[in-house]
Amino acid sequence: MRPTQAPFPATRLRRTRATPAIRGLVRQNTLSVDDFIWPVFVRSGEGIEEPIPSMPGVFRRSVDKVVEAAREAADLGIPAICIFPYTGIEERTEDCAGAWDPDNHANRAIRAIKAAVPEIAIMTDVALDTYNINGHDGFVEDGEIVNDRTIEALVKMTLSQAEAGADIIGPSDMMDGRIGAMRSALEGAGHQNVMILSYAAKYASAFYGPFRDAVGASGALTGDKKTYQMDPGNSDEAMRLIERDLAEGADMIMVKPGLPYLDICRRARDTFGAPTFAYQVSGEYSMIKAAAQQGWIDEDRVMLESLMAFKRAGCDGILTYFAPAAARLLNGA
Ligand code: PBG
């Protein structure tokens, strides 16, 4: 005898997809303007908004223009902005002294934004690549990227940013032991409330290409970053890095790049439960822009779908060049 079967499917999962109201009701994850950190590029000069050819819609702005951009971002409800300096080859040196100059354009931007747009949180970038003659995140001695001497410089850079008024320090260098060194320096200098968002699981990725154009590092970089950034084949190592950085005093952690590493985001969230961010990096942004410019994909929908993926993977927020455009869509403007 054949087992009796009901003449209808036991579960009709389509029932909960039938209307916008029901879909909204059962939706597990939501994307909101609160989820965004907006990376911006700052350069010298005044009144300048210089387009970056490999990142359509992204500009290098002089400090006054970065302040205007921060004002617009805050008005859109974007909670945080992240400052990356652009430095021409003529401003780069072997000793990277510009990195901790209190008056470098990143620090001037931090001060100016703090004064004009106090409600937006300011995140920084800590790494030597934007000041280094050879484009590396650490000092190079005899062809090697040296760890401990680099950390001394990163600590000075961190303190100069905290003095300028940064809320969140963003070490993107991948040296060993830098989080502990930065945390104790911040404590020692009376900056105990300054946060550290560690680029804990940062991979040696080809998706950073357009960013290196944006900060002027493409021509400068000699060799690759594989001795300090992670091998894309590894997952357990990412967990060890995150665990270490949290133990050394990081408040929040980041996985970078984003979409190709969503498995790492999910693992990080499930393993540590710490505030978890992903960086939708320049190459991810430019791929979407390029395909949209060709008319091959719907830019707005792909943008929002890619951002939602990070929420589904367990991220609390996303660093994304799409922040203002996504905010406008989410705000219904
Ligand atoms: C460098 C840094 C990089 C990015 C952020 N900080 C590039 C690199 O490691 O070479 C990449 C961001 C992006 O691609 O959008 N410290």
Automatic annotation (TrEMBL):
Pfam family, one: ALAD
Any one GO molecular function term: porphobilinogen synthase activity
InterPro entries attached to this UniProt entry: ALAD, ALAD_AS, Aldolase_TIM
UniProt entry tagged with the keyword Lyase: yes
Keyword hit for Lyase: yes
SUPFAM superfamilies the record matches: Aldolase
Keyword terms, alphabetized: Heme biosynthesis, Lyase, Porphyrin biosynthesis
Protein name (database record): Delta-aminolevulinic acid dehydratase
